[in-house]
Design a protein that fits this description.
heterodimer, A: mainly alpha, 3 helical TM bundles of succinate and fumarate reductases, 79% helix, 0% strand, elongated, B: mainly alpha
Chain lengths: 126, 113
């Protein structure tokens, strides 16, 4: 009882120092929540683009505006990070890349690859 | 499925849906990168194609299930008052079903019109 009572409770998010795998993991969550939150807008764009030539032009105009391009970049970054981190988790499920050093390197790789792929893909599709 | 195994079921659905979403996302992005439909008729023909439209309906369903399990796990971690959690989960479930029907409607209409 005394030992549990004296355990440090340290939940200040700015003071917790996450290991690199933890940082990758929290971005996996954040990108998932972000993509969930913008799902209605993505479906709106799809429905608009299929509504006729005018709707199609409106949707194309929206994604080619400055905020639209930033949005496409954020989506591509989120998708790339979430997908790469997901593949990493699936590989870990089958015992691949579980060693500490390898896991740290793949986590860093995912974090770095996310925005780079996001930029390249957004640039490519726009 | 017993109560004890319900977490295992969610775990499996999350991974199966992830594999389909991952593969189909790569296909979608690859088409947009290398063979993007140039105008409305081409766009409509691609999205409304017999295989692509059904694959897209399955994609929407997979995303909804995947989002449900993911968001549910995040809420369970961060929202502790049980009434607030239940209310949010209910709202999210409703929103996901509504979004799915909205997208499905457009994907089916594009084949009919």
């Amino acid at each position: 009882m005394t030992s549990t009572a004296r355990r440090p409770v340290h939940l200040n998010l700015f003071k917790i120092r996450l290991p690199i795998g933890g940082i990758m993991s929290i971005i996996h969550r954040a990108t998932g929540v972000f993509m969930f939150l913008v799902l209605p807008y993505l479906i709106y764009l799809l429905v608009l683009s299929l509504s006729g030539p005018e709707g199609y032009a409106k949707a194309a105009g929206a994604v080619h505006s400055l905020p639209g391009m930033l949005f496409v970049f954020l989506i591509m970054w989120s998708l790339a990070h979430h997908l790469l981190a997901g593949i990493r988790y699936l590989l870990i499920d089958v015992d691949l890349g579980v060693e500490k050093e390898v896991a740290r390197q793949t986590a860093l790789g995912v974090i770095v690859a996310g925005p780079i792929l996001g930029l390249l893909l957004a640039w490519g599709v726009l | 499925m017993s109560r004890k195994a319900s977490g295992l079921k969610a775990w499996a659905i999350q991974r199966l849906s992830a594999i389909y979403i991952g593969l189909f996302s790569i296909y979608l992005v690859a088409v947009l990168l290398f063979a993007a439909p140039a105008d409305y008729p081409a766009w409509k023909a691609w999205i409304g194609g017999p295989v692509v439209s059904v694959a897209l309906l399955l994609f929407v369903l997979s995303v909804l299930m995947h989002a449900w399990i993911g968001v549910r796990d995040v809420l369970i971690d961060y929202v502790h008052p049980i009434a607030v959690r239940a209310a949010l989960l209910g709202l999210i479930a409703l929103a996901l079903v509504a979004m799915g029907l909205w997208a499905a409607q457009a994907l089916i209409l594009v084949r009919l019109v």
